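Note to self: keep these together.
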Amino acid sequence: MSDVPSDIPAYYPLFLDVRGKRCLVVGAGTVALRKVEGLREAGAEVLVVAPDGVPMPAGVTWHRRPFRETDVDGAWLVIAATADRAVNAAVARAADARRIWVNVADMPDESTAIMPAVVRRGALCIALSTAGSSPAFIRRLRLRLEEEFGPEYGDLLALLRALRRSWEPRAKAAGLPDAARREAWERVLELPLLDWIRAGDRQNAGDAAARVLERALAERLT
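Structure:
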């Protein structure tokens, strides 16, 4: 049972693949720019609608005019990030009427989707949210996590991804049970991989992890 207070939505956490998908941002100020940059980083096809604003990144389509209700048509995700409350509300209504997820910047009560604070380290993505309760707290927590999770975590996940792609098909073909495969990966994660990577010895980390996996496979074949 959720322990979220009844007056706060118990948001369902979800990561979206927006690569090549049209996402609409209404507004072109500094807040909108942050939203656009995040969407572009995720590979989205971004459309901005606003009469004027700050420069936008390359690859963004910008219609320099006021918002029209039909602008939301065909979008996978809509973000309202203007300084005009009436415009933001109109964007939210238009998107919600078409069952399109909409985020209204700094107004979670008008949103059907909220944008978490994010810490990225390669394939590692940590998303944080207080359901709009305290943006200041989220900023502080994000800074702590950025210090705790350095770039070595991205390197570790790149290493594990490469090992998984090469080893898992062989393990399945050899009939290694799911439980045995999970145990092999647990043994890999018991190695001081992060320490080796931090020390600049990624080769040793990769070789040691590969030996653990190969040993698990050899035990199955003998």
